Amino acid sequence: MAIIILPDAQEDLLALQRYMLKQWGLELSAKAENEIFNLLDQIEAGKRSGQPVPELAEVGITDYLGVLTSHHRIVYRKINGVVFVYIVAGQQQDFMSLLTRRVMQRL
Q: Its domain of life (predicted)?
C-alpha cells in the first residue's frame, strides 16, 4: 500500500510544524510530528484504521476516515489500496471549516 499526502494536507503539515516549533519547542514538536507519521505508517500497514468522519457520515459519506493523535486529527480515504491524506489538523483548529473547504468541495 502507499500513502499520498495531498498538497493541502502537505500545507497543513508545514503550518503545524511552524506552529509547534514556535509554541512547543523542538523536542515536543518533533515528538508530535513523529506521532503523526507513525500513525500514517500503521494505517498504511493495515495495523490501524480510522472511523468514518461523523460530520460526513451524517450525510451518508462514509469512505472518508478520521483518526486522532494526542494533538491532531487526520482525515484520509483509501482508494484501490492507496491511502490519500486530505487533512492534518490540530485539535484546536476549526475542523468544520477545514472539512468544508477540503472534502465537501471535492464532492
A: Bacteria
DSSP state of 43: H
Per-state percent for the chain, helix, strand, coil, to nearest 5: 50, 25, 25
Distance CA 96, CA 103 (A): 10
In CATH terms, the fold of domain 2-106 is YaeB-like fold (3.30.2310)
pLDDT single digits (tens) 26-44: 888 899 999 999 999 999 9
List the Cα angle 75/76/79 in 5-degree steps.
Answer: 160
Please indicate, yes or no, whether the overall pTM of this predicted structure exceeds 0.85.
Answer: yes
Report the distance separating Cα 83 and Cα 90, nearest Å: 20
Instruction: Confirm if 85 and 3 have CB atoms less than 8 A apart.
Output: yes
3-class SS of residue 15: helix
Q: Which residue is it, cell 508530535?
A: 32
What phi and psi, each to the nearest 5 degrees, are found at residue 21? -60, -45
